[in-house]
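tmp note - DDE Tnp4 domain-containing protein
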Amino acid sequence: MDSDEEEVLLLLALIDSPVKKRIWIHDINRQHRIHGEFHTLYPRLRLDEDRFFNAFRMTTENFDEILNMIKENISKSFTKYREPICPEERLAITLRFLASGDSFRCIANSYRVGCSTVAEIVDEVCDVIWTTLQPIYMKPPTEEMWNLTSEEFYNMWQFPNCLGSIDGKHVTIVCPPNSGSNYFCYLKKFSVVLMAIVGPHYNFLCIDVGGFGKNSDGGIFENSVMGRRFNNGAMNVPRPKLLPRTNDVTPHVLIGDEAFRLQAHVMKPFNQRVSRVDRRKEEYNKRLCRARRVVENAFGLLAQKLRIYFKPMHLKVSSAKKVIKATCVLHNYLRSKTCNTPYLQNMYFTTQQNNAMNNEYQNFETLQLSGDRVRTQFVNFFNP
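out:
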């Protein structure tokens, strides 16, 4: 058999071989507006407030308010080929994903849409939720905001001059391709780090998302944008002030655990071996840990409200970052609705906020104090 005959036979084999044709819309999904969950179950859920809350982790009033805020940015144009998915359904799909942690395949089957369609909707809507709600519910910090937080921390947790509690949360993800060990953390899983500064009412003040799981919390904070701004004096931190009932002028500080480096603006507990033999230091540790736990509680509330954190995120790292940021700002939004305290109302609605960060270097005495000296002042305050 010569080469020409071989080519002819090869062409005939290719022509006769069955080719699996891809279809634009699966037959099951063509019944989207008849059997889809949005058109069958969703209207009934709106008639039962408890069931709706269990499904979407918010009330119908909250759902409608968020929808009104973002619908212009998630609406799609009508074409002569097909009718787009409406903004209300796009938000419902996204909140179902965040609230339940179900897979894209499961949600696609329920709503009678494509799996890739669900992935695109979640990615886009989470991004819009963050960009729309962040200027209201996670504003860039100002001096007025820090002063409010410091006063409320002292009133609630009896820790003066405290700007917030800081810690990192390892958010489990599926190992990204070609990432090596960058995302593999000490918990023996792959993760990205949510670094957060939390206020006294479990509200997120500042967040940094996307740190490698292999890195320590202290290293991630110091290399983050907010960490560098704190080090450069560009976070609008109020000037040092007297601790209550003392003559010690003390800077405002963040409080963290042993993973952070002791600095003039970051307080951490004493080593257990040191505090065990010194009652004064042990009392300081007790008071600091009592106030610091608000960040742990905030992470717990976030995960209990939005069950996406109970399972590994089967997402690209870029999409996981959008999901994490959207959940944090949704957490703040829902806290403002369910925890109607004067502090939160002033933080989000009545305080005059200047959203421009102060980029000038604030060269006042805070920067001349060592972390050890500041910590000693707090030890003396807690042990009069």
